[in-house]
Amino acid sequence: MTLSEENYLKAIYHLSDTFDGGISTNAIAEKMKTKASSVTDMIKKLSEKELVNYRRYKGVELTVEGKLVAANIIRKHRLWEVFLVEKLNFTWDEVHDVAEQLEHIKSEKLINQLDEFLGFPKRDPHGDPIPDKDGNVSNHTDVLLMTLNKNDKGIIVGVKDSSSSFLKYLDKQGIALGKKIKVIDKEPFDNSMKIRIKKEEFTISQQIANNIYIKK
Amino acid sequence: MTLSEENYLKAIYHLSDTFDGGISTNAIAEKMKTKASSVTDMIKKLSEKELVNYRRYKGVELTVEGKLVAANIIRKHRLWEVFLVEKLNFTWDEVHDVAEQLEHIKSEKLINQLDEFLGFPKRDPHGDPIPDKDGNVSNHTDVLLMTLNKNDKGIIVGVKDSSSSFLKYLDKQGIALGKKIKVIDKEPFDNSMKIRIKKEEFTISQQIANNIYIKK
DNA sequence: TTTAATTTTTAGTCTAGTCTAAAAAAATAA
DNA sequence: TTATTTTTTTAGACTAGACTAAAAATTAAA
Hints:
Mean pLDDT of chain A: 93
Number of strands of chain A: 8
Structural class of chain A: alpha+beta
Number of helices of chain A: 8
Largest sheet of chain A: 6 strands, antiparallel
Strand order of the largest sheet of chain A: 3-8-4-5-6-7
CATH superfamily of the domain at 143-215 in chain A: Ferrous iron transport protein A (FeoA)
CATH topology of the domain at 143-215 in chain A: SH3 type barrels
Shape of chain A: globular
CATH architecture of the domain at 143-215 in chain A: Roll
Strand content of chain A: 15-25%
Helix content of chain A: 40-55%
Oligomer: homodimer
CATH class of the domain at 143-215 in chain A: Mainly Beta
Order of helices and strands of chain A: HHHEEHHHEEHEEEHE
Radius of gyration of chain A: 19 Å
């Protein structure tokens, strides 16, 4: 498994989460910030290794084996994120680039010991679930804040967008995982909503509400 | 800095420790398990970047900058080794391959926080000194067990050979860092020595004694 | 259903890092 | 000091992974 192969598998895995059926060459190219022709080359290679199913012009799907490999990389990524935040005092908007490197370290023992050292965490600092050794992910039944209605209540459990700028915005507003939230009002015109967190009320845009997961 | 460049710098750094003056192409090739022609190519590249001084047929020496880069990689390697042993229950003969990967992770913050998290350790699990941020290494004034004479005493502080097989041998014999040792007798014929550790006496060959560092 | 636009693939090129084989320089021996 | 051996470098080829430009297949529009 080369670094590049691993990154392609991860990208396909994430795209499969959002879209059904074969993932298009262009979609992968965009996600990987590379060119479609490069994607075609790599897909052929992954197909040879039976990590993806591929029919020309029809896009790709991960095989069972490919899915396992990808889930394992994501498992490592998220466990390292927990480590960075819990043990090394990183903030949740600083961890991504480093975890992106650490996820490629190869050692079964390392990752299992790390898991234990961290107390077998179930979610990373952004609220995303950590796959287990067999690639099983506790499925995300949580809903987007956007879908709540007036007077609905819940707990913030995750974010969809993990970009540094978004996370910094949340920190500034005092929006953090585990906080209780209540929808005070919802504006039908632009879907913005007035929310309450810890007795403080303020308004957020639909764009923000569309990137926060809530457990009801 | 590519992975390959980093590995060459590290190899040259280690070789400079043992040999004075320019490090030969062949010596690097042997250490890196590659061919002399590949070494020549890479040396040219490192020379362009002013990380080594190079004169055709005369071998290489690290520049001040090159030495700093190399020391930094070794710093990372050794800090990760401490982490693996102290926090993740690795044994000292298991850490090398994983640390070899982890040493290439790029993040200033990561390594400084790790250093702090580990309590600013001075030595790795094999007793080797950990360079500081500026590449300074507390110089190894310790002597090889081989150089001790009858009735000399000391404390085991390091090993020269970190191969898994050697470390396993030491574990089996109960030879560990920090243990007090006394030379009971030394055989002039083959330089083997009878030693005592914790009231137990046994004989070791010169080869073994040549790979253990002692603080007198 | 033929044409136009879009997507995907192919063909060929480039770079980093490796290799083999041969040439050149340096070190050693006669 | 010349000949031989060893070391180092050069020349040229190979692979992975990327790229550009052009061809082919598919999809959408007229």
